[in-house]
UniProtKB/TrEMBL annotation:
Region of interest (Disordered), ranges: 87-108
Matches recorded under InterPro entries: FTHF_cligase (IPR002698), FTHF_cligase-like_sf (IPR024185), NagB/RpiA_transferase-like (IPR037171), Nucleotide-bd_a/b_plait_sf (IPR012677), RBD_domain_sf (IPR035979), RRM_dom (IPR000504)
GO MF entries: RNA binding
GO cellular component: cytoplasm
Organism: Ceratopteris richardii (Triangle waterfern)
UniProt name for this protein: Methenyltetrahydrofolate synthase domain-containing protein
UniProt keywords, alphabetically: RNA-binding
Residues in RRM domain copies: 122-198
Amino acid sequence: MLRHMGAIDDSTLVVTSVHDKQLVDDIPTEKLKAHDVPVDVICTPTHIIHTNTTIPKPKGIYWELLSPEKLGQILVLRQLKKQIEEQTGTKLPTGPSEKLPPTAQRKPMRQSIVYERTGNEPCIFVWNLDISTTWRDLRDHASKEGAEVVRVNIFRKGNSRPMARILFKEGTEIENLVNALDKSELRGSMIRAKVNSVPTDGKS
C-alpha cells in the first residue's frame, strides 16, 4: 500500500528485529512470492546484519493475488480497491478463492487488582490511557498524590484507547484527587479523569 501511494520506493530500507535463534540461511529464493518483502537490515540482541539482498521489492499491490476471502479481512484494502475502480472506471482483478486459517479471537483487555472492600469507596473513571498502561502504573500514579488504591479495573471498548475505574480507600478526598489526575501525564499520554459512581454490588 505504501508503494502504491508513492510513500516508499526501492531505496527505502526494510528493517526487522528477531532473536538470534530465528535466523536461517537456507530459504530458497524461489519459494518467495511477488508480494514478499525482502529485508535489508536484521537486528538481533547481539548483531546488526546488512543482508545486501538483491531480491526485488514489491512494486505495489498485487490485486490478482488477493483472494476474496483475504480481501474480506482487510477493510483498508477493500476501500482502496473501490476507490481505484471508481476513479479509473476499471474493475481490478481478484485472486482465486482460498480457505484461510482461523484467526485468533481477541478477548477484551481486562486487568484488575482486587482488595477486600466495604462498598463505600470513592471511584474515579480515567480514560485516554496509553495501550501499555498497567494497573500498577495507575496505582503508583495515584499513590503519588497520597491516595490509597483499593481496586483498579482496566478495560477497552472496541478499538478505543484503554480506560479504567479506580477505587480508593473510603474517606479519600476524591475531588482533589480528580483535579490532580486530570490532564496529568502517564506513559507519555495525557490522561483524563472524573468522579465515577460504582454499582453497590461491587461490579464494574
